[in-house]
Amino acid sequence: MSKLERTIQAIEPLNEVAMHEAQQRLDNLTKPPGSLGVLEDVVKKIAGIIGKAALPQSMEKVIILMAGDHGVVAEGVSAFPQEVTPQMILNFANGGAAINVLAKHAGARLYMVDVGVAVDLPDLPGLDKRKIAYGTKNMAQGPAMTMEEAIAALEVGIDVVNALIDKGASFVAMGEMGIGNTTPSAALLSVLEGLPIEEAVGRGTGVNDEGLRRKITAINKALDVNRPNSEQPLDALVKVGGLEIAGLAGVVLGAAARRVPVMVDGFISGAAALVAVKMAPLAKHYLIGSHLSVEPGHRKMLDAMELKPTLMMDMRLGEGTGAALGMLMVDAAVKILNEMATFDDAGVSRE
């Protein structure tokens, strides 16, 4: 049995007893039942994930940023050149990007992984070199990856998250970098959810009307050439996915197998999470939604995984920025459970 198969088989349902105990505690706090909305849902889910209603005062947070390039940029689908991918990784390593600021604010460590950048990167602080290939191939002309590459990238994600958990990580978030990656993400959404391409694709980093038409054309070509199987998520990943998307899907599977919550970021992270959930339906219970991206397909991804966003801030940057902010909301939810007074403690009447 492969590492991927063992990981999927290790994913179990949430602990219903712990969730019930957390709900009882929530209902006994000095507030109307359910009045804190998604914060209460998050508390119950974390209790079910870790298997106990007594939640830790703090969790060791890590944002795993997977980086990879995409051959489909040759179709003119991005407003930025592919050279931006390695340039931004250097920016991350130097602490100059939005994710650096927000990760620090959230008290999270940023852990970068080169799973498929199109050039060799220098040794950089915080960068784990796990390159499977020098980017994907142009999916508009054939499969983006081989099956072996896709599985290897999935297993990179599993290995990375297992190593971080072994070193103490108890809450992980998804982040990514890869010029052109909204195009394969939209393709995956269209295939896996049976959506018209026009409902799945958006402007990504800000392409104009002509750029949007090129994205739609490229995805149509990719689907016509590759005929991905909507019932086989691994086949879809191979044909129209990305190496960093595969790596992040592996992070989801590995974390779920270890009963560690995963904060989903935006559209690309959502595509990776959707692939993971299609491969292992129980994995959806280990996911927490962070924000609702302005990418039109993101809401459909979240709905497909039964996730509620904690924030709506019109963000579309990626990198894990929304997930970093979402981690702060989880901190707040945990504090509600741990620090609010009960009706009995406060001497407040329930009637």
TrEMBL record:
Listed Pfam families: DBI_PRT
One Gene Ontology MF term: nicotinate-nucleotide-dimethylbenzimidazole phosphoribosyltransferase activity
GO biological process entries: cobalamin biosynthetic process
Active site (UniProt): 319
Source species, domain of life: Bacteria
EC nos: 2.4.2.21
Similarity comment: Belongs to the CobT family.
Pathway: Nucleoside biosynthesis; alpha-ribazole biosynthesis; alpha-ribazole from 5,6-dimethylbenzimidazole: step 1/2
Family matches, as InterPro entries: Nict_dMeBzImd_PRibTrfase (IPR003200), Nict_dMeBzImd_PRibTrfase_bact (IPR017846), Nict_dMeBzImd_PRibTrfase_N (IPR023195), Nict_dMeBzImd_PRibTrfase_sf (IPR036087)
Entry keyword set: Cobalamin biosynthesis, Glycosyltransferase, Transferase
Designated name of the protein: Nicotinate-nucleotide--dimethylbenzimidazole phosphoribosyltransferase
CDD domains linked: DMB-PRT_CobT
Catalyzed reaction equations: 5,6-dimethylbenzimidazole + nicotinate beta-D-ribonucleotide = alpha-ribazole 5'-phosphate + nicotinate + H(+)
Known role: Catalyzes the synthesis of alpha-ribazole-5'-phosphate from nicotinate mononucleotide (NAMN) and 5,6-dimethylbenzimidazole (DMB).
Keyword field contains Hydrolase: no
UniProt key word Ligase: no
Gene name tied to this protein: cobT
